[in-house]
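Hello,

Our lab assistant flagged a job as stuck in the queue for most of the afternoon. It eventually completed. Since we weren't sure the result was trustworthy after the delay, we are filing this so someone can double-check. Below is the sequence as submitted and the structure that was eventually returned. Let us know if re-running is recommended.
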Amino acid sequence: MDKFAILLKSYSGDIERAVNLVRSFTEFNRDNIPLYISVPKQDRSLFNSRIQAENIKIINDEDVSSGLITEKINSFSIGYINQQIVKLSFWKTGLCENYFCADSDSYFIRDFSVSDFMFNEDTPYTVLIQDKDLAIEPEYQGMWDSRLERLEYIKKRLGVKDRLLKTCHGFGILSSKVLRSFEENYLKANNLSYSDILKESAFEISWYNFWLQKTKIIEIIPIEPLFKTFHYRGQYQNYRQRLITEKDIARSYIGICLNSNWLMNSGSRRYENPSRTNRLFFRIAKNAGRIRRKIRRCGRLDRKGE
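-- returned structure --
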């Protein structure tokens, strides 16, 4: 059993994105960390034909969990819920003690090693944030309000007393010790399955994070997200308009996620560095701001002269 591994849940529709992630994984993986790619059994031959590397193993979703659903839950697709079930169930395979959950619409942008994910040999970091910056974004407000309601539900359901709401959107680092405790002391104790709790609130990493905050089964060593996620197109455009490059992002993050919800109709699978047009518009906006400040300053001086 490995102390640490990376899990990618994917399927045939995301094969090109998965290949893109694997390419970056191979380039920047400094500790030869194993990568497990879990896909539906029917898609395995496709992934085997496109992805081959010594430390990458492709496994069947059906071997990870026997509790996969076959009908929609609420408004969520079968695939959406099953990918969450696989992430929560992967510890049962006995392949590793701790694992990082990656997504197909992400990729690595610089060297990474086990120390980015593990505080010490036995304790993983825990990604915990309040998301204050995202909460104030007008374009994300509808999603934020809905998400906040469902997260508060999980927190209350598990009896977490902390007045602060701390979790993450994804890209969590999961401990088998915490997940085993969650299954034995919460799911089984209440005659629940993973699909049952996801029907209540479909935020798999938050069920993990809140259970950890309640029980403290392992020491909580909080860190900010390891991947920069662009949740909507406006965020992405804003970064490029401000002339932020992939190299700049790599100073704080080991990877980037271009959320496929808004990228679906785009052929791009990587962050595009600012173009000459972006630089021109930025200079125009910067100069316009300077002129406006100068005009306001002159107006104040005129009023004083009167």
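-- support follow-up --
The delay was a queue issue, not a problem with the job. The result is valid. The longest strand covers residues 2-9. The mean pLDDT is 90.
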